[in-house]
Design a protein that fits this description.
The protein is built from one helix and 29 strands. By secondary structure, it is an all-beta fold. The protein has a single domain, classed as Kelch-type beta propeller (Neuraminidase, 6 Propeller).
Length: 317
């Protein structure tokens, strides 16, 4: 899930995408389906959005085939949130699916992911510059993560990005790492450890609002369940480092894989077939509220796939 320009975008299985407008009161309007990306890359793409375009990064053929693709497609955004035709742009340096992806500055970063069924615990980070017309420049490698990050989450604040959890050789991790864009070419510093999560987790929803990072739901056993309904949050200090993680008294209504994003003072999470949102309390804790008008059931999206494919974030308005 990505929220940009007052519109929320969600990608499900078979690379089907839907969008809806965020209303002034924080609720979300009716969903509209978008034409899918290339049928050859029909599953497990990663979604990222900027003010100009929506991007589908990598992926694999739909079904039981685990051959990663290097294909990157994008569609320009219109003022009403709708999308233009899908176009193909520069290929990934390393084919991948289920990567954690973020737009930061004028570049897109793709973290970890998988290249095949047995390829887990990948630490690779690759990035590309966004051109004026929305296409991407050449993908390059930059500093690798210290820990595997398959099905992890990523958020960005300023010129720093934070990788949270993920899978390491069929087990999840509680590692949190930070890297900063330090060079004009977009390459990042070495990844440094941050305050560890209270438990190992993957497929969790992550969002950042002001100086607080939120972590919602997910699973404790990579590729095998142990689903959670907990909500944790951590405050960034003046140096951009994460403090200890605090458990919110409010919990999600279901223990499932989750995707999350933040927009205009609210934190949003898709749990099951419903989008929930909340305006955080003064201490950073949250009380989730269901948006009854934003269910996804009738869209034909595979909802578990929405959560599994949603390891993406955009901090660009």
């Amino acid at each position: 899930m990505a929220i940009v320009g007052g519109y929320v975008y969600v990608m499900g299985d078979q690379s089907r995408l839907a969008y809806a407008q965020v209303n002034p009161n924080g609720t979300v309007g009716s969903w509209t389906l978008v034409a899918p990306t290339s049928s050859a890359i029909a599953s497990n793409s990663s979604l990222v959005a900027t003010s100009q375009a929506v991007y589908a990064i990598g992926g694999r053929p739909f079904g039981g085939v685990f051959d990663a693709s290097s294909t990157v497609q994008y569609a320009l955004r219109n003022p009403d949130g709708s999308l233009g035709a899908w176009n193909t742009t520069s290929s990934l340096a390393l084919p991948t699916f289920d990567s954690s992806t973020i737009a930061l500055g004028n570049r897109i970063y793709s973290l970890a992911g998988m290249t095949g069924q047995s390829d887990v615990g990948r630490t690779t980070v690759q990035y590309a510059e966004i051109n004026a017309d929305g296409s991407l420049g050449t993908w390059n490698f930059t500093s690798s993560l210290a820990a595997g990050h398959t099905y992890g989450s990523v958020v960005g604040v300023g010129n720093s990005m934070y990788a949270l959890g993920g899978g390491v050789h069929w087990y999840s991790t509680n590692a949190v790492e930070r890297a900063t864009i330090t060079n004009l070419d977009g390459s990042v510093s070495s990844w440094s450890p941050q305050a560890s999560l209270p438990f190992a987790v993957y497929t969790t929803g992550a969002a950042v609002l002001d100086s607080t990072v939120y972590l919602m739901g997910g699973g404790t056993q990579a590729f095998g369940g142990g689903w959670l309904n907990s909500i944790y949050y951590s405050h960034l200090d003046v140096n951009g480092n994460l403090g200890p993680w605090t458990l919110s008294t409010s919990v999600l209504p279901m223990a499932v894989p989750t995707v999350a994003a933040a927009w205009d003072g609210n934190v949003y999470a898709i749990v099951g077939d419903t989008l929930y949102f909340t305006s955080p309390n003064g201490d950073g804790s949250v009380d989730v509220v269901p948006d009854s008008g934003s269910t996804l059931t009738l869209l034909g999206l595979a909802l578990f796939a929405v959560a599994m494919r949603g390891r993406v974030r955009s901090n660009r308005s």
